[in-house]
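Narrative summary of target 7.
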Amino acid sequence: MTGIREKMWLIIAVFLIVCLITGSIFFSIRLARLQPVEIKLKEVNPAAAAGDITISGAVSRPGIYSSRAGDTLSALVSATGVSDNADTAHLAIYVPEKGEAARPQKVDLNRAETWLLQALPGIGEGRARLIVDYRTKNGPFRSVDDLFKIEGFGKSTVDKIRDYATVGD
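Modeled conformation, tokenized:
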């Protein structure tokens, strides 16, 4: 019986050693796959992006913002008060060529508050309030020409602001 027990222990010991070696091999292979891969990017000197940046769209404070070298796009966009429905995964950036005439920033008649509407030529506090009241009562404007539907807005007033106003969603 002693010989059978010794053979049994020997078989168990060999089995455990084989399991230990096999487990170590599988573990080392698995660990090798989990090692992070280091990617090195070539350093590029960024262009000096100091100047004025116009930010508009789904933000609560659209306007022209001054930037300095080192400012990040994220910081500039955050400063404008990004709205909840903004699609920050798709930002549009336009860089004009030197000497190119600046395009005027347009005021969205469907989103602008009275203080911003007053920046339009020929629009004072009273007319700005009429625009806000009209869109509150009748829904969003479909075009700038919808201003003709507001009493007191004639062709000359609408023509003055046509290049500076837009209608968003």
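The CA atoms of residues 24 and 30 lie 10 Å apart.
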